[in-house]
Amino acid sequence: MWFKSVDNIGLVLWRIAFGLLIALESFGAIVTGWVKEVLIEPNFTFSFIGFEWLQPLPGYGMYAYYALMGLCGLAVMIGFRYRTSMILFASLWTGSYLMQKSAYNNHYYLLCLLSWLMVFLPAAKDFSAQAIKTGQRNAQMPFWVLVLMIGQVWIVYTYATVAKLYPDWLDGRVIALFMEGKKNYPVIGPWLQNELLQKTLVWGGILFDALVIPGLLWKRSRSAVFIISLGFHLFNSVVFQIGIFPFMSIAFAFFFFSPKTLRQKFRPLLTLFENQYSRKFDQSKHGNDVRPRQAAWVPVLIVAYLLVQILLPLRHHFIEGSVLWTEEGHRMSWRMMLRARKGITSFYVMEPGTGVRSVYPLRGLVTQKQLKMLSSHPDFIWQTAQKIKAIEAAKGREVAVYVRSRVSINGRDYAPFIDPEVNLAAESWDPWRHHSWILASPF
Predict the structure, then answer these.
(1) Domain ranges of the chain
(2) Would you state the pLDDT for residue 295?
């Protein structure tokens, strides 16, 4: 079953859409000022812990970095040097993802995973510059491609469903907070404050995430579910402005519709390609059930990968404390749009033996965007303490760093977050355990 040949039109159309979307994401990050705000203006970025060495290129180097990613996206779209372009994009995007957390988004993590998966998929066998150059087309792919891609997206939606099953989502508190921030939107702002609409979004979000993949797999419901999916993702795009993710989610439908349907719906595009380049193709090799040597370990590798994706989001259950409060185990767990965090945090330094603590000024050290994140996220707070320690050590001063922090979750009253008597400069970070200097949840 794993190596059964199936029509690859869904994968080919996905490659075209994926390449276009990652190009738009990359060039858009430059045009909208995202690259400047997140990667150029800060003195340093809050990298993932363990990747502190991974910092943005100096000067305006990150513009070139993202422009190169955009060009890779266009190359992927047309299937030009596909494997090289995909490896380069996946490497650059992963680097960008790991070098900063101030603009963290689950969708960025998903794009990392999909980019590396695409490296290994035979997505440029047809309707590509590669096919034109070689004069050979192959309209087949192994069945494991569908297992891998559908399995990945099913895991994402399943965890998104489960994560919403907690009181603050179910009682509408979270949605109300999100929509309050949209009240000044032209035309739709006041409408988004409607309580009935918000209740519909609460349960609609749960039901959609739980049922969209089964609904697309079932032939009888596929078209209806796809139309609902269009509405759901376009609504999210307009209201939450989350970049390419809604459109990428829509494009996943290519893996669910039958090849016959896809070839009929996209006939004008496919015919244009075939008519223009038909003389360059060896038609005898188009559509053959070509079965290259298939390694027996491929299914094992796919199952192992999907198993890791299933287990990794569960890690917060094995870490003491509520992930909603501590944030430990939150990232890479598909806990999407679940909470609103605010914090008020101050840092103090003390030279050993003096007993005197003085406020450490953060102005000039971090940007306003970074300050917003470090005020309520424990890993940011710890990294800031380590940064202060390093800065003062460079001046010949050995200091202890203490923090007073109060955090509000989902609009609740602010509560003490960090133990003010712990020297964070002397603490280590372990992503697999609870840190005792994070105080107990007040709820």
Answers:
(1) 1-140, 143-257+295-336, 340-426
(2) 77
